[in-house]
Write the structure tokens for this entry.
Amino acid sequence: MNTVVTSKEDILKASRTLIQKEGWSAVNIRSVASACGVSVGSIYNYFDSKAALMGAVVESVWCEIFHRPENGAVFQDTLACITWLYGRMEYGCKQYPGFFSLHSLGFLGEDKSDGRQKMQQTWQHILEGLCSVLRRDANVRPDAFTREFTAEKFADLLFSLMLSALMRQDYDPGAVLEIVRRTLY
């Protein structure tokens, strides 16, 4: 076995490739070491346990799927943002078949708290991003939000619809876009 030092990013990239080709269950210390062409000990130089590796891989996959686009204008318009999010969900499903549903269900156990935390951090980041877009969108009517119906509550609704679409593998944002148009514009 080659004991050449690799990088954390190489390890995560190899892990993502394993998920794409063989599914989530293929990722373990030995298989990742083999994919990187390094010893098992080299992986442990970066990750002190399989759980630490898995948590980092989960974060890496989420970051790849929902990386910031070069065109930041998508975060100035609610309709464009939702369209982008649904497109990224579709991309994620194609690149990592079953990742959303398996990841969500697989990280609910107590021994997977790091993975669950990474998932929840990503979800929180997306939810906060939706709130920010709703507040910045110049097309939103000034009276669209009230004390009872806040941007946060609407973002939470949009996010719930997004999670439901993920589980159904429905990447057509049409109905959600119509809800936004009728509610805010």
